[in-house]
Amino acid sequence: MIGHNESGRGHGWFCQQVTVQALNAPPPDRKPEVVFLCNRWMDSGCEDRRLVRELIPSGEILPPDLAVDKSLSRGKWRCTVKMATEDELDPSLTAIQLPEQVSLTAYGTRGTAGPLKLQDPNRDLFLLGQTDKFENVVLGGIGNVQKLRMSAGQEDDDNPVWMIEQVTLEDVDSHEVLHFDFRRWVGEVGGDIHRELPVLVAGQLPPAVLEYEVQVETENAKDAGTNASVFINIYGKNGDSGRRRLVTPRSRVPQFQQGQTDIFLVEAVDVGKLQKVVVTKGPGHPWQLNQVKVKAGRFSAVSHIFIWSNTIGSPSEQTEEVSITIPVISTTPAPVAIPIKQANYLPTSGGQWSVETVTGEKGVSGEGTDLVLVLCGDKGESSPVNFLPVQDTPFKPRQTDAGVVHLAQDIGELIKVRMGFADNSKNKSLDIVKIKFEDVDTRDYFHHELSRPLAVDEKSDGWTEFPVVWPAVFVLPVIVYKIEVTTGSVPKGTTDADVFIQLYGRMGSTGRRLLKKSNNEVKFQLGQTDVFELEAVSLMSLDKVLIGHNDATAGKGWFVKKLVVHPHGDEEYVFECNRWFDGGEDDGRIERMLTLNEDAAPTPDVGPAQKAGNKWVVWATTGSGSNQGTSSPVVVVLYGDKGHTEPMLLGDSPDPPVKFTEGQTQQFEVASDVDVGKVYKVRVGFLGDGREPLWYSNFSHSPSWYLERLKIQEESSGRQYVFEAKRWIRVDQQHDHWKEFPVYTRNEQDMLPVKEYYVEVYTGDANFAGTDANVYLEIFGDRGDTGKRHLHGTKAPGNMFEKKKHDMFIVEAVDLGSLRKVKVSHDGYGAGSGWFLDKITIKESQSSKEKYVFECHKWLDVDEGDGAIERELPLAGLMGDHVDAATDVDWQVRVMTSMCESFSGTDSKVTLTVFGERGTSGPQPLRPEDGIFHPGQTDNFEITLNPGEIGRIQKIRLEHDNTGKQPDWHVEKVIMNNNLGEEVKFTVDRWLSYNMMNGNFPSDIVCEAPAKWPDQQPLSRYNYIVKTVTPPDPGAGTDATIYINVVGSRGDSGVRELRRNLEQPQPKFQEGLTDSFVLEAVDLGTLEKVIVGLKNPSSGTSWKPQCVLVRVSETESSLEKENYVFPWGKHLDARHPEAEIMLAEVVDDYVEREITGLTPRGSAPHTYRSPREGGITLEHGESSPQASPRTSQTLAPDINRSPRAGGLRMQQGPHGDESGSELEIGEFSARSDY
């Protein structure tokens, strides 16, 4: 047992190993060193927060004078396996099954040997208490042995018992002896049949034995789960874990089921930096795996993410094993300790920190003693706290100053500290070289050394940030953000005001920072881009920025075009603006929150982590009356029998927020990490974002919204809850903006009542006991809480919260049951904001005869007592009274690249076009983080579609530009999910390439796939055979690239280049030849026209297509199909590079053969006649009396009769190209005009 007694985070110790050896023994009796591997923190902020560890021997190391000559080794070893005795096993195990087989795998510096079965047919092996020896175990030339894996039992053993106690390997020739002590696992039931240990070498620290935490997430889709066994092998820079079955010992919960996350532990010698995992599904149902997360130890600071989002195995492979390899996609920070609430033996923080500063040689200049601190955590930031040292003359050179700061807010786990000045308007500096922090209650400790003074000057704004360095945590780096601000070219759009910016990201914000030193001499001029640098602790990915200035005078504003932020390298975040920041322009705002431009999405340092947990669909119905809607951001909090969510925003962003329209029911998707269980109430309010004090001082500034009805549905269970509201959400004389509603039931007697709690607040009679600060109260009962509520509108005369004052307020909430405690606080507003609170009493209604009493008798003042301005007051006792416009919908697009070839990925530029019943999205760029679609990888993107413009999705078109080093791309499928809970799938299974084949036909770089909705039959996908006929006229042919777009009643094929001629090996588009091509598209309906053209023609380039024929082929083997005829007969050139040709006729295959000069011998000719009204008619001759009526159809006006029967002829019109021409195709004649 080893440990220490220094409590407090940061006072701990990481122990890697302990060795014990008897000293002063003579050489014959000298014992080996006994090694106890630890590799654990002993720190109250790490792992299980314990300071003491009990260690078990892991092996022995020979003394130096007993070392051996390894050069004698021939790779043959003697292996001894010692089994545990029955006394060492759990006596409750009534039937112990001995391992049927034992094997070993040895890893060396030059290779791996094994698994090697340890067997001897002449004796019983591996009996309890027995030691078995095996001669001539051949490990070969694997070099110096580094680790040993022992395997005891079969992979399908559900509850194996580990019985191997010790293993010894002795080299037969060099007599090197390696000891492996497996006693720590003896008696463990269930789980892994494999255990491994490192080789212990004198003078070297061995690699750690880690418990890899493996989280496996199954897709939340129908039939996504599997009944098969699942195995994993974790690979790192230093080796692998070996194949391990993922099983939870003695668990009765089925694993790998739909929407489920299963967690397993895989114990192995440290494999180094993780690179990939190999996941194997055994025989059984196919399995839809979403992703795997692996941490190198339960409390590793980083989680590695391996995304698959695909099926493993198919129905035809249910009797086989199927393996996949997934590389590391991204990493994300992870908790390094159990929640502090689980360590109830440790003291809790009251938010009071002892701070020490060491001043450097430069001391202080100007009025630089007004130092303020902002502590930032995973729940938010503290308000700026003044650091007031106890010394009379602080911050002298080389002086240490001390003081205490008090945090009014619960900011969660500390991440970073921001230091600056209270007043940044004047030049000043303060040379702090070191600062120390220690929590007064918990003794948590950290410090930071600064490399330069804090300064306000022409370059610096007086702020600096540094990360909190706790033991074991992922420490965020300090980086320099390059910020480009473009001023619009709008008259009077410049400014000389002080401009500030605040960046927001995954890890919080930078705080408000002034943009001081530009690359330009004069900042913010018309059409100018100013570049600034801002140093801050990394926010990881960015999602929004706040930018503004300090001059609210009308006409003194600024017009901002856009903002671009570069964290480092080529990474770029674009925030479009094009708005005024002027008190007299636009909406009068001088600061705005800008959200990320989706078309310029960046590649973050750490892969994006989608919010885990429970998803809900919310339908909100706004009242239909005048001005009952709102454009203010709305949040909801759900309460259930297991807990409550955090406030969840309805909509994607608070700026700009969703507009709630009168008379409309709008749908949203929200998510929370909290499983609330069965819902019983909801709280609805506005996202104040710091503006609430203004609302309470002037109610007219408060937003308002009339909520008619709210309905929610839990995505995982499908359970729905309805809340009949019919209330205004707004601040009034007695209530804050929060409103609570119970779940609606048909029998109103079963619904929870909404109560008006009468709250009486007694301010004490101490000197200066009153306060002008904003006071907040949170009431807790058996059935949840009220949330943090603002107290205003006292029923007592005079100002609130004055000395010896008795104020009475109303807090409305769904019945809380019996009250248990309250939490009271204030925001520190105003000079002398401290407040002495005597007590609080609460009645459940105005007529209630009983009061709940909560005693305080303490200051809520940073400068009095313990400095707290928030207090939790437990119940002291009870006493009697005597004492429809559619909004945009966000879609997640998952594109799955196939693993059919090692080169099936692409680095070309890819676009996706979505087609619906009403319209199309236009090409949407899809670009992975590294610019490459890798084989076997699923790439995730987000696009926004307007359902009013698109309608229900019918098909997609994927295409790329054929650039890059590897343009050939094979796509397996595409899946789209939206924030309304809808999912649509597209089976692609095609090459997008000019070089490959899809079945019997050449592939294209454009591919279409029909939408597969659960309730709708998908459209068919057809091959369209396109034939071009070039006449034998001199100069009719071309070597140019020709494209076509086939248009039908259901849409078009998109522009396709006619590249690969089915009539090979003849050259394309030459005089007198017919060329054939295939074009695959989702059913275009009845064909109406084709658009053909020359791609990028140069001067002198021309082509004269006689006609284009298109045949619809449902399958590759279809022979007799109708042909659509599109006659032309004019030159296309640089002046007229494109022609739109309307459908002339639909003929059968027999007629098509004659049109293209392929009339079979003995076939009847075709005749032509011109209708009196000026159209043309194509019909069979007299020798074909059975011709279908469809083969006679009027085509186009202004026709000249053809004097010939047969052949191809183009007759120039009397006025040249401008007057048109006469086309004769066999027996067909038609006039065409530009």
From TrEMBL:
Transmembrane segments: none annotated. InterPro entries: Inner_ear_hair_cell_LOXHD, PLAT/LH2_dom, PLAT/LH2_dom_sf. CDD domains: PLAT_repeat. Residues 1157-1234 are annotated as: Disordered. Residues 1183-1195 have a biased composition (Polar residues). SMART domains: LH2. Residues 1-56, 77-200, 210-326, 351-468, 479-595, 614-743, 755-874, 889-1006, 1020-1146 form the PLAT domain. PANTHER family: OXYGEN-REGULATED PROTEIN 1, PROTEIN CBG12474. This is PLAT domain-containing protein. It comes from Littorina saxatilis. The lineage of its organism: Eukaryota, Metazoa, Spiralia, Lophotrochozoa, Mollusca.
